[in-house]
Specification:
This protein is α+β, with helices and mostly antiparallel strands. Helices cover 23% and strands 43% of the residues. The chain is globular, with a radius of gyration of 21 Å.
Length: 235
């Protein structure tokens, strides 16, 4: 009996030691190795489509074109029967409404067709579709303690991430499959004590120029699990 107890104690100590050696950086590197095994993201050049479906809103179809080596971003959106195009190249910004750069301030305001909005979308798409690789960016602070949590019946490693004040003020949690290190879900809080913010469930997978990206992203409020919509990725 004593021998069994000692064996259990030794086993627990070994597990504890292993857990302590499993760092946040190691977890992130394992997940990046799964999603971007050839290291394509840093020199990404290509395009993909995102179809956004939300309750009580028209379907929004977007084409995203990226060329990181040329500092190029183009977003083409079909919404309400109109085509909106935003192009960022180095320091330049070009905007088109139904193929023309000559449109009124009223049209720009109604469709939120501005250079500031274009920059926001560039950051938005490159962050979400660049995960988990984007967690290597400067200003990203990885909590060194890796925890565990079951998500939709799957046991996951949990990585807590915060940012330098100049980068962002939200707190993020990323959930990785314990066997494959695939990113399964993430959530963010503006103020964690208020349980505000949202969580995003990732399902299915599509390979985009060598990168394994989540095909479907379903968005929910943290409060009451209210459904917000789903983004569908395609080539």
């Amino acid at each position: 009996m004593k021998k069994d107890i000692y064996s259990v104690i030794i086993f627990c100590i070994c597990v504890s030691i292993q857990a302590q050696k499993f760092t946040a950086t190691e977890l992130l590197n394992k997940s990046i190795a799964y999603h971007d095994p050839e290291g394509v993201w840093e020199q990404f050049e290509g395009s993909f489509f995102v179809t956004m479906e939300s309750p009580n809103r028209p379907i929004r179809k977007s084409k995203i074109e990226l060329d990181f080596m040329k500092s190029f971003f183009r977003l083409t959106v079909e919404s309400g029967g109109n085509e909106l195009v935003s192009v960022l190249k180095d320091e330049e910004c070009d905007l088109l409404y139904n193929g023309s750069s000559d449109f009124s301030e009223e049209v720009a305001k109604k469709n939120r067709l501005t250079c500031e909005r274009a920059m926001m979308y560039k950051d938005y798409y490159t962050y979400l579709y660049g995960l988990p690789m984007k967690l290597k960016n400067p200003g990203t602070i990885l909590n060194p303690v890796v925890t565990e949590k079951e998500v939709a019946g799957v046991s996951c490693w949990v990585l807590k991430v915060t940012y330098d004040p100049d980068t962002g003020g939200d707190t993020w949690y990323f959930y990785f499959d314990k066997n494959t290190y695939k990113l399964r879900q993430y959530q963010f809080f503006h103020d964690e004590t208020k349980n505000d913010g949202e969580y995003i469930v990732l399902e299915n997978e599509i390979e985009v120029y060598g990168i394994k990206m989540p095909k479907d992203r379903a968005w929910y409020y943290n409060q009451q699990d209210k459904y917000l919509g789903t983004d569908y990725l395609s080539l």
